[in-house]
Amino acid sequence: MTKKFLFLTILLLLASPMVFAQTPGNPTPGGHWVPISAGFSMAIASGLCGLAQARAVAACAEGMARNPGAAAAIRFALLLGLVLIESLALYTFLIIFVKVS
Amino acid sequence: MPETELWITRIFNDYLAGPANAILILIGRAADPHPWANFIVMQILVAAIVIVVFAILRPRLSAERPGKLQHTFELVYEFVYGQAAEQVGHDGPRYAAFFGTIFIFILFSNLIGIIPGFESPTMNPSVPAGCALAVFAYYNFAGIQANGIGKYLSHFVGPMLILAPLMIPIELISHMARPLSLTIRLYANMFAGEKVTAVFLGLTYFLIPAVFMGLHVFVSLLQAYIFMLLTMLYVAGAVVHDH
Prior knowledge:
The structure holds 2 protein chains of 2 kinds.
Chain A: H1 2-15, H2 33-66, H3 71-99
Helix pairs in contact in A: 2-3
Chain B: H1 7-15, H2 17-26, H3 38-57, H4 68-88, H5 92-111, H6 126-147, H7 149-153, H8 164-203, H9 210-239
């Protein structure tokens, strides 16, 4: 199974230069793929960051429910974690804005 | 996309283009008909506002009869110093002036964009980059000042000497990534806030995107706090004494 998967992967990689032979008169590298990949990459980044933040919030809510005295410390850790995860989605957004204009 | 001028920027360009062009020529660049950029004028405005607010506050400080302004700034002081003592340890208050400056500057810069007719200077990538580089220089300087340069550089080697060839590139890259992530986090949050409001203004009726502006206010506060908090964490990591 692994050998088959490896063989298919190598075949796919070897076939990839054919993609570049499509639009000869395109000044920017990528061309009409840019908006499509921008949409997909932003969706993937937002989706995964949404999942990560959901886990963070769930852990925070459970911790605060078990130990209301530590709510301040848990809230602090939650905010720090949420902002750091948010910034990952924003890196993708920034790349999109840099590439799609 | 060409940048539209704010009314303040137009005033600066009309009357103060001469001194700005003199500075540009001094550093070797060509003179420009519009030398003042929006973000430079807004930064100067934010600095002027902060200076004026503190200049009004200082004579009104009184131990016997504290006024409203004093109460507000006592809250800010307690917040910044409390966080500094909690994050950096007992040396915290020594660095709290820098943390407070960063917090107040970024907070005012973020919030001034909500007012129509003004633009957040942090919406331009140069301003968060400047703040992040200042933080980078400051925490390295604080680390060298507290520990001496030999001991500070030995932090990069890691816990065991045998791991040094692995730890040094990892530590260097993570230290270089810190100002980059600080810049991008602040810039992207402010830029995205404005863009989202603008996009929804094009999609729906006039006042509905005000909800996004409310979110943007919350995000502005949070991002200013996070910038200050990460600065504290980096200073704490640099200043740590192995007792």
